[in-house]
What we know:
Number of strands: 9
Helix content: 10-25%
Order of helices and strands: EEHEEEEEEHE
Number of helices: 2
Low-confidence stretches: none
Structural class: mainly beta
Mean pLDDT: 86
Strand content: 35-45%
Amino acid sequence: MVKFSADFKYVESWVLPKAILDKFEAMSNSGGSWGPDGFLYLTGHDPTELYKMRLPKAGSVLELVEVIPMNIRGQGIAWDRTDRGVIYGIIRSTNKEKAAGGNHKVTIFRLVDAP
């Protein structure tokens, strides 16, 4: 993960912990977003999980805070900036579901309680 300035100059960077990289297998990180609680939330492409991360106090490896089960099939997430704590995820349809007329779906979770 790389932090850039407003004019896209490199500021600093971090790497994902091995435990998260192992979950991604041959794929990569699918999406991520800073939550209203100040933590970074990431997804892979296939695991039905959300990874709550924080910047390290020292070093370059992001810290895994929590693995949150989430009914998604990777493919990114997005916070609802108008409703604190609501996050959207995509349930990617499988080939079998597509053949039966199914399509991708969006799912909604409340992860952070509003003040």
